[in-house]
Amino acid sequence: MADTSTSEVLWSGIDGDLDQLHESTEAVRARVRGRGLAFTERPPRPHLTPARARRYDNASATAAAACLDGFTRSPWRTESLHLVGSTVRGHPGPRR
Questions:
Q1: Distance in angstroms (rounded) separating the CA atoms of residues 18 and 46
Q2: What are the residue ranges of helices labelled H in 1-96?
Q3: What is the pLDDT of residues 58-71, one digit of tens each?
Q4: How far is Cα 39 from Cα 44, in angstroms, rounded to an integer?
Q5: pLDDT at 7
Q6: What are the backbone dihedrals phi and psi of residue 89, each rounded to the nearest 5 degrees, phi first?
Q7: Mean pLDDT score, 76-85
Q8: Which residues 6+ apart lie within 8 Å of 25 measured at CB?
Q9: pLDDT digits (tens, 9 = 90+) for 25-39
């Protein structure tokens, strides 16, 4: 499922057996809490981000979504997971 409700980011939700992913999420959150760092508690939304809009070109993510029209996914199993933080350029806030 691709979300094209915004033309800035193309993302696809992840489903299947997510128990270990949710356990890992809670372990990371427990470490963050243990360090006294504040963050917004909300349910995890596992997803992949295959495309982001180029600066000043929101149409690029929409074009990427159009290329996936009719795409049929097949199940796959991941061997590793990388936790990635992102920030909005020019935004003084912490990583999300």
A1: 9
A2: 19-34, 59-67
A3: 677 777 778 877 77
A4: 13
A5: 57
A6: -55, 135
A7: 74
A8: 44
A9: 899 899 989 999 888
